[in-house]
Amino acid sequence: MDSMAIDRRGFLLGSGAALLAAACGTSAKAAAPSGEIFFSGRGDGANRFDVVAFDASGGVRLDCALPARCHAIAVRPDGAQCVAVARRPGTFAVVVDVANRVTAQELAATPGRTFAGHGIFSADGRCLFLTEDDTALEEGFVSVRDVADGYRILRSFRTHGVGPHELVWCADGRTLAVANGGILINPDSGRAPLNIDSMQPSLALIDAGDGVLQNAARLPAELHQLSIRHLAGLSGQRLAFGMQYQGPLVDDVPLVGVLAPDGAVQLLDLPEALGSRTRQYIGSVAADASGRWLAASAPRGGVVLFWDSEAGAFAGGLDLADGCGISCTAVAGEFLLTSGQGIVERVICDGLRVGRIASAPLADGQWDNHVTFRQL
Amino acid sequence: MSMMRLPLPWFALCLLALLAGAARADSPDDDARFRAFALATARDYLLPRYASLADATAKQEQVWADFCRQPSADGFAAVRAAFQSGMDAWMPVQHVHVGPVSLQTRTERIYFWPERKNAVTRQVGALLQSGDAAALAPDQLAQASVAVQGFPALQLLLYEGDDPAQPFLAGDPAAAYRCAYGAAVARNLKAIAGQLVDGWTAAIGVLAAVPPQSGKDYGLPDSPKETAQQMFTDLLTLFQLVGDFKLGLPLDESLEKPKPKLAESWRSGRSLRNVGLNLDSAAAMYGKDRASGFRSLLPPGADNDAIDQQIIDGFATAIAAQRAVSMPLDVAVADPVGRPQVETLLADIRQVRNLVSQRLAPVVGLSLGFNGLDGD
Questions:
Q1: Verdict on whether the full-model pTM lies above 0.80
Q2: With an 8 Å Cβ cutoff, are A272 and B146 in contact?
Q3: What domains appear along chain B, each with residue ranges and CATH number?
């Protein structure tokens, strides 16, 4: 691997200007979209936590206090409500009325279970799906809630694995992909893993209607300590998944993979200079608006990594201390990045290079693990 | 490298203008405080250490040139001594990621560690096998894999095998190439160290400029607070490097199953010396008095005096514990007497780290690891 191809702080001088101009030129019309809204949890460094929504010019659209730290925000397709899900093991999910900027309702997990940090709405906005942990049964569940009926629990189904975390829709619109991290915890004692030696992570594809397991991707036995945590839908009905390795720091293991519709799994390589920098930890994955570009954040390494997923080629890395939140924007080839140190910025990928567009405002506060994009 | 110098299309300029106004959420007081801190740290702590590295690597280059002109046992001892001096100069800045070292993969080119896939041995071996003279030209080597560019490659040449001098003294073409390669790596290190001194000299000008200028060309973030934040992250990285990697990896789980070959620099017998140099540098970065380093950010007051004293004492304890390890690290981890000494050192280092991250950070207004330490 040519080490010089990666410039941590931006793209290489020389070709950079042309690339940026070309990329901006093709997307100039779409590049100042008025309806871009980004949702994320935020801490203030003094144990106050909020759910915040902001637009592309940094205007704050929502800033609503939460009972404790949340993890990810599920946004209803119409943008009228969002749900901030508590960090794992979580006891609350707060429904927020976005227009009026107030808490509408606080949801509890199914009795005996805890929330696992992520949720997602159905495309028609009628149902909310939340991952839940049942540590007594040592199984993951998804609870399905009726939005119109005060988020009443309609039913739940098994995730066919332990320690479920993020869930996303597959391209068919009816299958849910659920990341089963494989790690067993005791919610009374926090997050200490109890089964590192025997963990069996999986990426389960489940029919959201009847809860039937359609398929499950598992890693080779020697990689069983790779906890599958985060997901993103790519072009061509593919799914990207980000992992966290529970084994030794020096082991050379992949941290990002792509599942093709035929079930084939491709584990993505990193340039050697970046491999040990990730500290075996991916915090979030996202696809751009086209589904071609894939981003994965490594907050422990302070770097965000990008691939051209269609070419299977590593595109570059950008330094971002404690950077974790990533989402697409309205513009193909772009991502929005956030950090725990108050950074919000848009970046653009083009021609196997990555460049920063600008740092954004909202510099106060600690942006939490995930950011969710909606075009409204 | 700055985006600001590129010809941007109109909308990007609008975006930049829009964001520039809002990006300054820090108060003017904070700005001044962090600017003074960053400037002093760059001028009084970083630049002198990079200047030492430039001196040591310049001398090392000269010694290699002399050695290759007339290889001898004395000459071999001289290049080994020059390597040791070079490493002595690198260790005090090994943890630093802020600034010019973050550009052009310089950190990894100087010191690719910890390596994966046995990359250094493998790739240095392949290069020596090739005998390719063109690969040793400065611009070629600077573009090659990071594994063949820096100190770890020199260590392999100088310390691998029962009689490492012999391959240099054989008088055949392979010996000549081996020497030419060592000299080329030494030249490469001198060039990079020179770039770091030049970069920081210019960066200090930028940090001191009124009105403020962008330090992006030198790998500095937008605001003084971000620069200070990165310097703080670097200090904490040092604790992680030493604790998790340098001590944690060779210690592994038990006396019965240590991993001495995972100790840093075990070949050149400097594992413990490296740790000592790291700790001395960390203490210096923290500050030599209340007017310097991170100590200058501590507001006056009895509570803060107490925190300061605890950290000072913590450093002294850890440094004493390093001096107290009575045998080489790779031996100590497998020795019933040595191992507890190393474990004490590790505990003392974690104690200082906890003080710095939990007690110091909130008082001086810096944060860390909101996402990276969240673990989800």
A1: yes
A2: yes
A3: 36-218 (1.20.1420.20), 224-364 (1.20.1420.20)
